[in-house]
Amino acid sequence: MKDTTFYENVVIITGATFGIGHQLALQLAGCGAWLVLAARNVEKLEDVSKHCSQQGGRVIVIPTDVADPTQCHNLIEHTVAEYGQIDTVINNAGIGMASRFDELQDLALFEKVFRVNFFGSVYCTHYALPYLKKTRGRLVGISSLKGKYPSATADAYTPSKHAMAGFFDSLRIELANSGISVTMIYPGWVSTGISSRALWADGTLTGKLSKHEKNAMPVDVCARMILDAAAKRKREVVMTFQGKVGLWLRLIAPKFVDEVARKGSEE
Q1: Is 5 inside a domain boundary?
Q2: pTM (2 decimals)?
Q3: Catalytic residue numbers?
Q4: What residues in the chain have per-residue pLDDT under 50?
Q5: Element (H, E) at 165
Q6: Strand positions, DSSP E, the chain
Q7: Is residue 2 part of a domain?
Q8: Most exposed of 62, 201, 247, 252 (fewest Cβ within 10 Å)?
Q9: What is the number of structural domains in the chain?
Q10: pLDDT at 251
């Protein structure tokens, strides 16, 4: 980032301990942002905070499980108590899932993924909105290409990302005259380790990287693209050329796109 858009800009990042969230925190710290790092892992939060401080950023950590609305409310109120305002909220927290729908014994795991990926964004946005209106601030949602396309399995990850996209696209229209920008990000595979932290049908971690992630976009490149889009208040960013082509193909040849998704899951 070459400009000063985020200098002394109060930025909340959820899911700040790993992957995209971690890298966003480091890059924003280098821009002089006033950071609020939120995640469940307190030890890891403190570690990221230390590295952000070394980059020159002002930073506080607020341990938060975004699946809990009370904790999301605390995140927002604690931020305002510390900094006096909120300028940007980056809804990045998320968990993956690696299971067929028909393998689930009950829907508890499905609901858990939705609470984090979808409702976590809804809760944080709800409580932050009055403060963002005062600053004419920025809302950013980190979705996935799977928020634009069908998946080969009906696990909760893909529908939660579709729901997230629908919510923020509708909110953008609702807030059209508020001065708040809503930027949706649709990354493809990024080297974050998310596939190794995805959940099997029994709730255990997969513990291994998907072959799709092994040669994926570097996480620092992804973070730079996100911050550039947020700074320019872009509507959305589809990060890969294949993703952009796929959007057109889905309009004219939806069955072909379904078949590509199915074969990709078998590789």
Answers
A1: no
A2: 0.88
A3: 157
A4: 1, 266-267
A5: helix 157-174
A6: 10-14, 34-38, 58-61, 88-91, 138-142, 181-186, 236-238
A7: no
A8: 252
A9: 1
A10: 77
